[in-house]
Write a structure and sequence with these properties.
Number of strands of chain B: 10
Largest interface: A-B, 22 and 38 residues
Shape of chain B: globular
Number of helices of chain A: 11
Strand order of the largest sheet of chain B: 6-7-8-3-9-10
Number of strands of chain A: 4
Strand content of chain B: 25-35%
Order of helices and strands of chain A: HHHHEEEHHHHEHHH
Distance between the termini of chain A: 56 Å
Distance between the termini of chain B: 35 Å
Number of helices of chain B: 9
Radius of gyration of chain B: 17 Å
Largest sheet of chain A: 2 strands, antiparallel
Strand order of the largest sheet of chain A: 1-4
Radius of gyration of chain A: 19 Å
Oligomer: heterodimer
Structural class of chain B: alpha/beta
Order of helices and strands of chain B: EEEHEEEHHHHEHEHEEHH
Bound molecules: adenosine-5'-triphosphate, magnesium ion
Helix content of chain B: 25-40%
């Protein structure tokens, strides 16, 4: 029983990381109406920044994380401005999708050039040992607890930001109808830029947590979690913030439990299988909704 | 009287297709001016260009001493120009109240905003009854009222309305036109785009007729109502 609990909790922890990444995906999709396939690579960039800065400061990871958040935010804003914004009016939405894939390869190859292909061993940014329960039977690592806590905090802060602030309401308006939002006096470009900034900052945070839990860093570190988080966002209902959270948690738990009890080779197949089943039953995802428009 | 809004030689292209072919018109302070024309004449294009949703290729839009073609669209509302867009375009997943608050997005003073809100509730009691309802679940007529209320929340000097009577039952149409007249009496200048030419001309001071991107006729609304060619083409007589 306690081993099941241990696996469940580690699934929850992995799921929390997916959730934080998925929040970035889903916000950018919901508001800018584009899939930023480079989002996963922002995580990798964040990890390398922490790795480098913490290394230079002999292990001071707090500064590393802050620098990573700032630089990833700038990277997100710059990418949006240079690569995506000029294509926003393009005839086909494929144009910007393909550009995003290009940005993804660009970042991976840039990392390859600077840091090489060898896997770096990442020192966890969380030094806390964690807690022991049931007389030592159940041990929860510090990084697990911190990861789950941070994802909950991120979710709450984001929800409050969107529900309670002017900028948050502007995001909802832009998400629904850019033209109508502009008619309200909302600066649509600025709002989309802010969305990218938030999503990229979240990617840096997710990176710090991911590499602390799974401490091997390569130029491809962000790719698979990026895809999984995308699946999580779709599963939860893309565009929905609570949906991203639920999708992320479900995905993380299913992945760890199926790795443990079924087969580690099959776990990805099971994860994607669940996605297919959910989409067949509810094409908009778990929390996705569509209000019928009146004509 | 000097014009509040003066459009000069305005041209707009969609790719290679020219939707507006150098149109000029003006709206004086306090007027209701109707812009009528068949489907695809360029009415919506005109209003979108005024609000900066589409860029002009040539020409000027002079409003309160500014050239709107040189001003980014999000700054136009705070100059006192609001639009009730074609198809209403309310924010379906927001409540009625949130939609109205979006209309006041550029205003800062909370007390003034609440004052306007009260005025709008007085004008549209239905909106107050339904303030917590999601806008997407309102009836078409209620959505039209919401779109008008939302535009009025910015406290505009001029309001651009794109086919406010589209798809509404005759009773609602009458109600909407009554409200347009009331809004105008309260000092808001109105530029009204309509398919329902008869109704539009009956409340307008002046009107312009747009045909495939050009203004082909203009004059006092009462004259156009009795113009033979207009009767044939737009009034179904
Ligand atoms: N986004 C667009 N891309 C290409 N062509 C467009 C676009 N929007 C409008 N047009 C074309 O420009 C012309 C004018 O369209 P517009 O919507 O301004 O007409 P309208 O007078 O408002 O018509 P309606 O009464 O049907 O609303 C039409 O021929 C239309 O097909
Ligand atoms: Mg139109």
């Amino acid at each position: 029983m306690s081993s099941f609990l241990t696996y469940l909790i580690s699934g929850l922890s992995l799921g929390s990381i997916y959730a934080i990444i998925a929040l970035g995906y889903t916000m950018v999709y919901g508001i800018a109406k584009m899939l930023n396939f480079a989002h996963g690579d922002f995580i990798m960039v964040g990890c390398y920044i922490i790795f480098t800065v913490s290394g230079a400061l002999s292990g001071n990871s707090i500064v590393g994380i802050l620098v990573a958040i700032v630089l990833c935010t700038l990277l997100g804003i710059t990418t949006e401005f240079v690569a995506y914004r000029p294509l926003r009016g393009a005839a086909s939405p494929l144009a910007v999708l393909i550009t995003a894939i290009g940005v993804s390869y660009f970042l991976e190859n840039l990392a390859l050039l600077i840091f090489g292909a060898d896997i770096k061993s990442f020192t966890s940014v969380i030094k806390w040992e964690g807690l022991t329960f049931a007389g030592g039977d159940l041990r929860i690592q510090g990084v697990t607890i911190v990861t789950i806590a941070i994802s909950v905090i991120v979710l709450i802060v984001l929800q409050l930001f969107i529900k309670k602030t002017r900028q948050g309401q502007a995001m909802l308006a832009v998400a629904e109808d850019k033209g109508a939002a502009a008619l309200m006096g909302i600066n649509v470009n600025k709002t989309i830029m802010l969305t990218f900034a938030i999503g990229s900052a979240l990617a840096a945070i997710a990176g710090a947590l991911l590499c602390s839990a799974y401490p091997s860093l390569s130029p491809y570190t962000g790719a698979m979690p990026g895809i999984k988080a995308f699946v999580a966002a779709v599963l939860g209902g893309i565009g929905s913030i609570p949906g991203a959270m639920i999708g992320g948690l479900v995905l993380g738990i299913v992945e760890i439990l199926s790795k443990t009890y079924i087969s580690s080779q099959l776990s990805d197949a099971i994860v994607f299988g669940i996605l297919v089943v959910v989409l067949l039953v509810k094409p908009t995802g778990i929390l996705g909704k569509k209000i019928q428009e009146k004509v | 009287m000097s014009a509040l809004l003066e459009v000069k030689d305005l041209s707009v292209y969609y790719g290679v297709i020219q939707a507006l072919k150098g149109i000029s018109f003006h709206v004086d302070k306090g007027e209701v001016v109707a812009l009528i024309g068949a489907n695809g004449a360029g009415k919506t294009t005109t209003l979108h260009t005024l609000s900066g949703l589409i860029d002009a290729d040539k020409g000027d839009i002079l409003y309160k001493g500014e050239n709107l073609t040189k001003i980014p669209n999000h700054k136009i509302v705070s100059l006192g120009m609001a639009q009730v867009p074609e198809g209403r375009r309310v924010f379906a997943e927001m409540t009625v109240l949130q939609n109205l608050k979006m209309g006041a997005y550029t205003r800062k003073d909370k007390a003034e905003i609440n004052e306007t809100l009260e005025m709008i509730y007085k004008r549209f009691p239905r909106l107050e009854e339904r303030k917590t309802q999601l806008a997407g679940t309102l009836s078409g007529g209620e959505q039209q009222m919401l779109a008008m209320g939302r535009a009025l929340m910015s406290h505009p000097d001029i309001i651009l309305m794109d086919e406010p009577s589209m798809g509404l039952s005759p009773i609602f149409v009458n109600e909407i036109f009554k409200i347009i007249q009331d809004v105008n009496k309260d000092g808001v200048t109105v530029l009204l785009v309509e398919q329902n030419a008869k109704k539009a001309l009956s409340i307008a001071n002046r009107a312009y007729v747009l045909e495939t991107g050009s203004i082909v006729k203009e004059g006092p609304a009462s004259e156009l109502l009795n113009d033979e060619s207009i009767k044939k083409a737009y009034l179904g007589e």
